[in-house]
Amino acid sequence: MKAKIILTSIAVLAIVLMLAAYVLLFGAGPGAGAIVLAQSPGQIELACPSGSTVMPGFQSLNPATGKFRQQACFNPATGVITLQPDAVANAIPSLPISLTAGVSGILPTANGGTGNATGNAATATALASAGTNCGAGSAASGVDASGNALNCLTPANVGVFVSAATNFGASVSTSNLVASLPSDGIVFFDARPVQVTAGVGCSSSSNTVTPQWSIGAVTGGFNSGSFSQVSITGNGSVGTGASPATADQIEQVAKAGTAVGIGAISTLASTGCSTVPQYRIYAKVIY
User: Fold this and answer.
1) Whether the Cβ atoms of residue 203 and residue 270 lie closer than 8 Å to each other
2) pTM, rounded to two decimals
3) Mean pLDDT of the 36-42 span
4) How far apart, in whole angstroms, are the C-alpha atoms of residue 16 and residue 49?
5) Which residue in 28, 54, 101, 152 is deepest, having the highest Cβ count within 10 Å?
6) CA nearest 48: which of 29, 69, 64, 66?
């Protein structure tokens, strides 16, 4: 097929060169030595456009009708050469597309087309139709060549809580990280207290924070518990608190419709503070 296209291109180029040579030699019309047979309009079944004249050597007789077909025309006013459909079709007779009636048909992929009537690549055609989807609450990691969802994943739901700055010795009221669990399952808790305001003038006694978790009331009881207590000296530095090594990660079974909460209790053992140290609770629940 590539060889045919190359030969076709050479044929079209030859026509163009011949026409260009004609214009250079004869200018705006036939010159000396050029013979143009005159025909009446009734003898022509394919005529040049208005204002153009047929170029020598580019007129043929249709033996089936006995009439002439003008294949190449020159407009002296504009200098434009027009190739009639006959000239193009005769130069490229072997292409699988009709040029005399406009482009039609489906061009195969082997010839540089898409092989379908939509003009889309095969993958685009597949994606244009409705493929299988993931279920509610899940998402696909991709789609296959037919537009179907691949590897439906259910992302984890996360609740995050950061308390206000709270004086040591004052509690953090329980706040819901999750107001209502969507389904039965296991929840994962993590809570870490961190000192955010340093004490000033405090004695060296350690102050404590104990984060607490709770799962709302369901049939069969109410679950709650505490994370490990963290102790910080009275004048401890800002940023002191639970490290990953000392923080707890708790797993609990929870029922659909229940709330998940985080709070904290605290003691202030230091005395003489002109500025009372403060802490925050940073907590997360995954369900």
Assistant:
1) yes
2) 0.47
3) 54
4) 18
5) 54
6) 69
> Which tokens go with 107?
């061009």
Going by DSSP bridges, is the β-strand pair 149-153/221-226 parallel, antiparallel, or unpaired?
A: unpaired
Exposed/middle/buried for residue 187 (C-beta within 10 Å: 0-12, 13-18, 19+): buried
How far apart are alpha carbons 193 and 191 in whole angstroms?
7
Q: CA Rg, the chain, in Å?
A: 44
Tell me: pLDDT of 93 over 50.
Answer: no
CB-based contact 241:194 (threshold 8 Å): yes
* DSSP characters over 255-282: -TT--EEEEEEEE----S-SB--EEEEE
Cα–Cα dist 55/82, whole Å:
10
Q: What is each CA distance from 216 to 124, 200, 219, 262, in whole angstroms?
A: 50, 39, 10, 11
**Paired sense of beta strands 278-286 and 260-267, if any:** unpaired
Q: Which two tokens stand for residue 124?
A: 């685009």
Two structure tokens written together for 167? 């004086």
Local confidence band at 279 (pLDDT 50, 70, 90 cut-offs): very high
